[in-house]
C-alpha cells in the first residue's frame, strides 16, 4: 500500500501535500515491524560472532526504488577505545564497570598543576592500526588541544590530534555477506589519530542536575575517519564490522559496541543520481550495534530522498540526529547555532611524537595475518565464500582451524566440523572456541579416524561432544568405549542373520512388499552392534539377504 | 613562515571576520603606562597592523567569561597590543627555515603501560564542591557548546 502511495507521489507532486502524514505513518510502521523482526537477530549480534544477521527482506521495496533515483554518500567516524592497562596520560587503570570515580588522579581530573605523560602503548596501538589500514604514517606528529566546555571534560579541553594525525590515506578491504549479495569492497581511510576520552555524564531523571563519573576520562581512543565511500546501510554496517574484526585481530581493542569500546557516528548525504554536487550532510549518533547502523542509514536515506523528491530539499539541514532504537527513526538533536569553534592549538605540555623506521618495521613484522589476507588464503585453499567468511570472522576460530590443518586435517572436513557441530556447541554453551576442551590436534585425529574407517560419522559426533566437554584424546575414547567400527563383512552378516531370524513377522511383511522395513532391520542391527556397524556395508549385505 | 606563527596566535585568540568599528588611531591614543613597562621592546605600536582586531565579545563568550559592554571597549585595545607585540614575529625572515612542529623537548618522555593507583583519592574527592557519593554533581547542561 505504501509503495503504491509512493509511486503516486513520484508522478503527482501536487498531491503530496495532502498525504505526507499518512505516508510517514506507514513508513514508520514498516520500520517498526522491521525492528521486531530483526530483534532476534540483534540478540545473536551480542554473541562472539560479529556477523550481520539481518534478513534480506528488511530491504523493502520502496527503498530499492529510492536508490534507483538517489545516491547516498556515507562516511563513518569510529572511536576505538584501546585496551591498554592504563589511561592515555596517567597511570590510572581502566576497567569497564568499576565503581564510579574510583580510578582517578589529578591528571585525569584536570586538577591545576597536573601534567600529562603519554602512554607508550598508545603510540604502538596507533601504529599497528595505521599499518593494518594501509595508511601512510606521520613520522613526526603532535598533540593539539580541542577546547570546549562540558561537564564530562575536566580540563575544558580534549587532548587530540588536529592537523597532523599519526596515520592517513589508507584503505580497508572487506567482503559483503552472501545474504546481501556478497561482493568485494575497498573503502578509503582518511585518517587515524590519537586522543583521550571524556568522562561519563548521567542525566538525572527529574531534577536540574547531572552526575559525572570520571573513570573513563583520559582513556585512550583512536579515531578512524573513513572516506565517504559507502553507498548504503549494508556497506556501512559491514565496514564497521570489519573494523571491529581488525581491532580484535590486532589486539588493540575488544571492539564491543555494547560496552562503548567501539563507537560509530555516521555522516550521510543524499543527492539525485547524476548530480555532481553533494547533498546536505547529516550526522547520526547513538548507534549501538551494526544492525542499527544499517537501519538508521536506510531510514535516513528514505527520509532525505523523500524530501528531495517532494521538492523540499531545503528542509534537510546540516545537523546532528539521534537514532532512536525504540521508534526506529532518527530525530533532531537540539539544533546547534553555527559551527563549533574548538580553537585548536598545539598541546604545550606534550612533546612531538617521533617514529623511527626501525620502530615501525618492528611493529610491521609483528602484525598477525589480517582478516583480508586470511580470507584470500582460505579462498585459495578451495573453501567457498560462506566458509571463508565464517572461519575468518573470529581470529580464535581461524587460529583453531589453521592449527587443525597443520595437524593434518583435510581442509573441507575441518571447516565442516568447525562450522557445524563445534559452532552449535559453542552457541549452546555460550563459550568461545578457546574455552572448550577439544584441541585442534584431536579434531585432526577425529577426522583421520573417520577417513581411515576406524569409526563411523555418527560415532564421531558422539566422541566430539565428549571431547569438547571433557577433553581427552580420540584414541583413548575409542578404546575406552569400544567404539571401533565393525567392518568385517562376515561379522555383520552374522548379526544380520540373527536379526532376520528374530523378526520373522517383519521379514514376511518385507517379502510381501513393505520394502520400507529395510530401515527397521538396519536399526535393529545397529542396536545389536551398539552403533558400530559400518552403515554402508550393513545396508549392502542386508539388501542382499532381504532380496535373496 | 612568519604567518605560520601568526596563525598559531590567531588560533588562540579566535579571529573572526567580524568587522569592528574601532580604528587604529583609537588604539594608539589609549596606551596604558602599565603596558609600556611590561612590553619594554614595544616602543611603537605598529601602524595599520595587518592583523585583525580582536572580537572581544566572542572571545569572552568562548572562554565563558562575562564582560560588561564597557569592559569590552576597555579590553579591546589592550588585547590588540598583545597581538601586535606578537605581530613583530612577522618581520622575521623564515624562507629557508623548516617549520617546526613543536619546540624541542628533551627525549621521548613516554610512560610504560603499568597501572598505579593514586594514593590520595580522598583528598581530591573532599576538594570537590558538590560530591554526591559516588558521582560529581553538576548543573544539567544538555548541549555541547
Automatic annotation (TrEMBL), chain A:
Pfam families per the UniProt record, alphabetical: GatB_N, GatB_Yqey
Report one GO cellular component: glutamyl-tRNA(Gln) amidotransferase complex
Q: InterPro entries under this entry? A: Asn/Gln-tRNA_amidoTrfase_suB/E, Asn/Gln-tRNA_Trfase_suB/E_cat, Asn/Gln_amidotransferase, Asn/Gln_tRNA_amidoTrase-B-like, GatB, GatB_Yqey_C_2, Gln-tRNA_amidoTrfase_suB_CS, Gln_synth/guanido_kin_cat_dom
GO MF terms listed in the record are:
ATP binding; glutaminyl-tRNA synthase (glutamine-hydrolyzing) activity
Catalysed transformations (reactions): L-glutamyl-tRNA(Gln) + L-glutamine + ATP + H2O = L-glutaminyl-tRNA(Gln) + L-glutamate + ADP + phosphate + H(+); L-aspartyl-tRNA(Asn) + L-glutamine + ATP + H2O = L-asparaginyl-tRNA(Asn) + L-glutamate + ADP + phosphate + 2 H(+)
Tell me, what does this protein do in biology?
Answer: Allows the formation of correctly charged Gln-tRNA(Gln) through the transamidation of misacylated Glu-tRNA(Gln) in chloroplasts and mitochondria. The reaction takes place in the presence of glutamine and ATP through an activated gamma-phospho-Glu-tRNA(Gln).
* Protein name (database record): Glutamyl-tRNA(Gln) amidotransferase subunit B, chloroplastic/mitochondrial
Name of the gene this protein is made from: GATB
TrEMBL record, chain B:
SUPFAM superfamilies for this protein: Glu-tRNAGln amidotransferase C subunit (SSF141000)
Q: Where mainly found? A: mitochondrion
EC number(s) on file: 6.3.5.-
Q: Which gene encodes it?
A: GATC
| Gene Ontology BP term (one) | glutaminyl-tRNAGln biosynthesis via transamidation
Q: According to its UniProt record, where is this protein located?
A: Mitochondrion; Plastid, Chloroplast
| Membership in a protein family | Belongs to the GatC family.
- Write the protein's name: Glutamyl-tRNA(Gln) amidotransferase subunit C, chloroplastic/mitochondrial
One Pfam short name: GatC
Amino acid at each position: 500500500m505504501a509503495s503504491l502511495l509512493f509511486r503516486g507521489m513520484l508522478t503527482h507532486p501536487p498531491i503530496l501535500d495532502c498525504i505526507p502524514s499518512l505516508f510517514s505513518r506507514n513508513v514508520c510502521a514498516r520500520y517498526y515491524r522491521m525492528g521486531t523482526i530483526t530483534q532476534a537477530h540483534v540478540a545473536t549480534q551480542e554473541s562472539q560472532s560479529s556477523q550481520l544477521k539481518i534478513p534480506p527482506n528488511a530491504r523493502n521495496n520502496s527503498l530499492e526504488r529510492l536508490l534507483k533515483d538517489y545516491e547516498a554518500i556515507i562516511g563513518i567516524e569510529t572511536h576505538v577505545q584501546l585496551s591498554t592497562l592504563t589511561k592515555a596520560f596517567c597511570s590510572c587503570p581502566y576497567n569497564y564497570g568499576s565503581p564510579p570515580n574510583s580510578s582517578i588522579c589529578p591528571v585525569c581530573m584536570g586538577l591545576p598543576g597536573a601534567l600529562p605523560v603519554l602512554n607508550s602503548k598508545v603510540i604502538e596501538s596507533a601504529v599497528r592500526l595505521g599499518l593494518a589500514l594501509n595508511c601512510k604514517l606521520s613520522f613526526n606528529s603532535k598533540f593539539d588541544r580541542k577546547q570546549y566546555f562540558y561537564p564530562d571534560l575536566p580540563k575544558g579541553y580534549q587532548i587530540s590530534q588536529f592537523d597532523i594525525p599519526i596515520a592517513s590515506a589508507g584503505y580497508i578491504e572487506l567482503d559483503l555477506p552472501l545474504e546481501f549479495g556478497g561482493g568485494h569492497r575497498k573503502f578509503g581511510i582518511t585518517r587515524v589519530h590519537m586522543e583521550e576520552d571524556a568522562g561519563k555524564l548521567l542525566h538525572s531523571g527529574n531534577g536540574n542536575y547531572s552526575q559525572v563519573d570520571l573513570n573513563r576520562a583520559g582513556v585512550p581512543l583512536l579515531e578512524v575517519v573513513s572516506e565517504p565511500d559507502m553507498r548504503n546501510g549494508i556497506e556501512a554496517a559491514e565496514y564497521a564490522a570489519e573494523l571491529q574484526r581488525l581491532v580484535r585481530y590486532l589486539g588493540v581493542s575488544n571492539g564491543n559496541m555494547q560496552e562503548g569500546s567501539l563507537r560509530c557516528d555516521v555522516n550521510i548525504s543524499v543527492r539525485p543520481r547524476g548530480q555532481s554536487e553533494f547533498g546536505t550532510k547529516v550526522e547520526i549518533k547513538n548507534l549501538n550495534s551494526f544492525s542499527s547502523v544499517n537501519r538508521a542509514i536506510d531510514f535516513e536515506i528514505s527520509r532525505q530522498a523523500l524530501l528531495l523528491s517532494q521538492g523540499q530539499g531545503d528542509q534537510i539541514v546540516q545537523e546532528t540526529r539521534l537514532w532512536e532504537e525504540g521508534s526506529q527513526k532518527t530525530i533532531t538533536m537540539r539544533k546547534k547555532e553555527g559551527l563549533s569553534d574548538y580553537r585548536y592549538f598545539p598541546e604545550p605540555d606534550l612533546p612531538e611524537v617521533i617514529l623511527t623506521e626501525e620502530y615501525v618495521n618492528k611493529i610491521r613484522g609483528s602484525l598477525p595475518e589480517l582478516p583480508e589476507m586470511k580470507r584470500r588464503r582460505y579462498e585459495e585453499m578451495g573453501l567457498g565464500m560462506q566458509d571463508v567468511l565464517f572461519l575468518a570472522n573470529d581470529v580464535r576460530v581461524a587460529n583453531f582451524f589453521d592449527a587443525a590443518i597443520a595437524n593434518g586435517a583435510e581442509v573441507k572436513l575441518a571447516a565442516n566440523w568447525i562450522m557445524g557441530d563445534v559452532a552449535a556447541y559453542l552457541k549452546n554453551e555460550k563459550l568461545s572456541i578457546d574455552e572448550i576442551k577439544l584441541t585442534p590436534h584431536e579434531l585432526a585425529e577425529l577426522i583421520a579416524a573417520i577417513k581411515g574407517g576406524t569409526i563411523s560419522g555418527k560415532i564421531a559426533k558422539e566422541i566430539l561432544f565428549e571431547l569438547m566437554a571433557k577433553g581427552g584424546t580420540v584414541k583413548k575414547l575409542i578404546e575406552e568405549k569400544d567404539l571401533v567400527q565393525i567392518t568385517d563383512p562376515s561379522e555383520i552378516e552374522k548379526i544380520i542373520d540373527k536379526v532376520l531370524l528374530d523378526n520373522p513377522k517383519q521379514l514376511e511383511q518385507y517379502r510381501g512388499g513393505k520394502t520400507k522395513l529395510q530401515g527397521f532391520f538396519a536399526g535393529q542391527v545397529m542396536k545389536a552392534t551398539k552403533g558400530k556397524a559400518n552403515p554402508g556395508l550393513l545396508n549392502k549385505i542386508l539388501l542382499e539377504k532381504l532380496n535373496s | 613562515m612568519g604567518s605560520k606563527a601568526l596563525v598559531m596566535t590567531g588560533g588562540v585568540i579566535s579571529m573572526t571576520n567580524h568587522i569592528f568599528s574601532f580604528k587604529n588611531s583609537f588604539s594608539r591614543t589609549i596606551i596604558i603606562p602599565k603596558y609600556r613597562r611590561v612590553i619594554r621592546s614595544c616602543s611603537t605600536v605598529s601602524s595599520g597592523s595587518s592583523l585583525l582586531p580582536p572580537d572581544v565579545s566572542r572571545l569572552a563568550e568562548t572562554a565563558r567569561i562575562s564582560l560588561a559592554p564597557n569592559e569590552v571597549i576597555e579590553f579591546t585595545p589592550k588585547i590588540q597590543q598583545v597581538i601586535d607585540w606578537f605581530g613583530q614575529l612577522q618581520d622575521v625572515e623564515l624562507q629557508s627555515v623548516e617549520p617546526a612542529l613543536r619546540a624541542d623537548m628533551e627525549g621521548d618522555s613516554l610512560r610504560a603501560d603499568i597501572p598505579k593507583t593514586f594514593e590520595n583519592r580522598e583528598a581530591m574527592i573532599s576538594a570537590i564542591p558538590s560530591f554526591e557519593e559516588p558521582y560529581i554533581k553538576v548543573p544539567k547542561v544538555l548541549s555541547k557548546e
